[in-house]
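Data's thin. Show one?
=====
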Amino acid sequence: MLYSIFMSNSNKHLYFFILGSNPELSFAEIATVLGIKEKRLITKELLVLETENEIVPENLIKKLGGIIKIGIFHEELDNPDQLELQLSLAKIASKAKGASGEGKFCFGISAYGESIQKPLALGLEVKKYFRDQGLSCRLVTSREPQLSSVVVTQNKLIGRGIELVIVKKDGKVLVGQTLAVQDFKDLSKRDFGRPSRDDESGMLPPKLAQIMINLAGQKSLEATILDPFCGSGTVVTEAMLMGFQNLIGADLSPKAVSDTRENVNWMRKRYDLERANIKIINRNVVNLSKVIKASSVDAIVTEPYLGPQRGLKNIPLVITELEDLYTQALRQFDLILKPGGRVVMIWPVFYGENHIEPRLGNFTKVYSVLYGRSGQKVFREVVVLDKK
């Protein structure tokens, strides 16, 4: 069933979240950030949250790597006919038109859930409604039932226009609007525009780094977060952007250390960030406890060496070597993590079936989620471990 925003408390808001390409990982992230206990999915990609607390979507979405859109539902209709649905959409759009100022008003429609009249046909009826009232408007369309975040952004449907959202299930229809979309341009700039990259050793996408940092569950920005395989510094720089003040990056490679420092400086200048306490060190993970104080780190977030990325021939040997490396790393993590500390770590899965199983020692696996696209030779398994 759908969830009415007019249930027992008129002060409640019904927000929706459009999950990313890996809905399970996206849900794990937002559940950790917002403390969501119950998974209320209308479709596999649309999560709803009923709350008395107001959310600031434009701020929240900047901190979430796995959420494509955030919006709010205004009205629930019970088996509406076509005219009732059109009037509901027009009413919501009219409010946005009043707040958008002068000029041609742009709007679009995205439909989720069960089959409903094509958004284009609905949109044309709403456009006719506006024109009959003498209002200048433009309908933004797409070949798909849903407008992408790119289309929403490029057509300025947040603020100066509106993306109307309709969700149908079991005869009921929720009608609302999108309030924020993921900033794909900025994510791309942080991924491909930073000064130092190392494509040979693999690149952790900024979106995935954000998700992993959020899965670490650190509520205080004073928490100490360590990436012991820092590479070009994606975890460190994304944590900086999220406001964390105590960060450590370490790597065996002098080039990785140099790249991370350069990217940290670039991030500071680009986003005018206040100086945080950031330490970048050249150190092998197997003796990290010699330079980092015992029980001083709150969380470890890292993508370690995942094995050779090209020409994999002897997968069992690669798995054995990685299991030994990860086991040694976990022993070091146990020494430097605070009691109850958390590790969010990526383990490779070769050809979708060959998993890594290092010895966990003093850690308990909370959960793990597979991340990747069909056809990849090496998938990422995002693993969350808690220190006993």
